[in-house]
């Protein structure tokens, strides 16, 4: 598993015009990238169609921030997997802590969405993370194992090859977030890898586990160098294209220098 996943969820921040400007610039950056990076962006639903027109002729994956699990029905305000698949969405972000916190999204509901995404050949990007109380009570691992097991209930080995996990400790996310230290992240990612191997045997070894939560220019290399961190899920530090570009450039230089040391 060599590919490094780097992407950003724009949350409710960009208009269509702003999203288009960002994506046009990201396409130029992506064309110049030589390392094995898989870039992805996750805009608001309103921007998906125009942005898909831009990402089609690029290597950038396009994701949606949420969806319902049913194909269609009386669910006012919801978007179905069938509708997202029609656009050609590559991946669906599921279970972000804000969806869990503000919209009462449960692991059981996320599990239904995971199956719906897989049915339409869209990659589920499943977000998990413990909150500060769970961390203080020292039940982080139990919490994460339960989230993984329920969200992935009924997923076959074959289907598991399409899944991505994002570990995002709730206490590390957003304006109030405290960046996690790399030792803590290493320990949790090793545990998640082990749990995925228990669930999916050798397939579990290759499921990408991304890290997210106050990732920024100063700390991202510490995280990306960890054995079981296969990518970064970045919020604020990637919403401005210049800031995102700076991270990507620094990462490329870092990967090149690592590769030259191996030779
Ligand atoms: C997030 O909300 O998923 C996130 C990672 O945000 P930030 O990087 O801004 O903490």
Order of helices and strands: EHEHEHEHHEHHHEHEHEH
Q: Which CATH class?
A: Alpha Beta
Q: Please, how many domains?
A: 1
Tell me the fraction of residues in β-strands, as a range.
5-15%
Helix content: 40-55%
**Annotation, overall tally of beta strands:** 8
The ligands found in this model are: phosphoenolpyruvate
Query: In angstroms, what is the radius of gyration?
Result: 17 Å
Structural class: alpha/beta
Main sheet overview = 8 strands, parallel, barrel
CATH architecture: Alpha-Beta Barrel
Could you report the average pLDDT, rounded to the nearest whole number? 97
Quaternary state of the chains: single chain
List the total number of helices: 11
Shape: globular
The low-pLDDT segments are none
Largest sheet, spatial ordering of strands? 1-2-3-4-5-6-7-8
CATH superfamily: Aldolase class I
- Termini Cα gap: 19 Å
The fold-level CATH name is TIM Barrel
Describe the structure.
Helix 1 runs parallel beside helix 2 (48-55) and helix 7 packs parallel to helix 9 (182-205). With 263 residues, this protein is of the alpha/beta class. The protein has helices at residues 16-32, 48-55, 81-87, 97-103, 107-119, 132-136, 140-151, 157-160, 182-205, 220-224, 241-262; strands spanning 4-9, 37-42, 61-64, 91-94, 123-128, 164-167, 209-212, 231-234. The structure holds phosphoenolpyruvate. Phosphoenolpyruvate (PEP) is lined by residues 9, 96, 168, 173-174, 177, 212-215, 233-236.
């Amino acid at each position: 598993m060599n590919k490094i996943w780097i992407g950003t969820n724009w949350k409710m921040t960009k208009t269509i015009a702003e999203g288009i400007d960002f994506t046009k610039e990201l396409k130029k950056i992506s064309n110049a990238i030589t390392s094995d990076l898989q870039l992805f962006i996750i805009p608001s639903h309103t921007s998906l169609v125009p942005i898909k027109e831009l990402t089609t002729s690029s290597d950038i994956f396009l994701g949606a921030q949420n969806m319902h699990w049913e194909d269609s029905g009386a669910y006012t305000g919801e978007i179905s997997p069938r509708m997202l698949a029609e656009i050609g969405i590559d991946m669906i972000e599921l279970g972000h802590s804000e969806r869990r916190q503000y919209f009462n999204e449960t692991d059981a509901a996320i599990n239904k969405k995971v199956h719906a995404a897989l049915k339409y050949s869209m990659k589920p990007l499943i977000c998990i993370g413990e909150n500060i109380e769970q961390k203080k009570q020292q039940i982080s691992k139990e919490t994460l194992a339960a989230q993984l097991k329920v969200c992935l209930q009924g997923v076959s080995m074959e289907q598991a090859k399409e899944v991505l996990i994002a570990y995002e400790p709730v206490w590390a996310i957003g304006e109030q977030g405290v960046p996690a230290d790399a030792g803590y992240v290493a320990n949790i990612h090793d545990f998640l890898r082990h749990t995925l191997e228990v669930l999916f045997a050798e397939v579990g070894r290759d499921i990408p586990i991304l890290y997210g939560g106050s990732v920024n220019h100063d700390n991202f290399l510490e995280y990306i160098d960890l054995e079981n961190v296969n990518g970064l899920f970045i919020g604020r530090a990637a919403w401005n294209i210049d800031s995102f570009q700076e991270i990507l450039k620094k990462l490329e230089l870092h990967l090149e220098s690592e590769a030259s040391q191996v030779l």
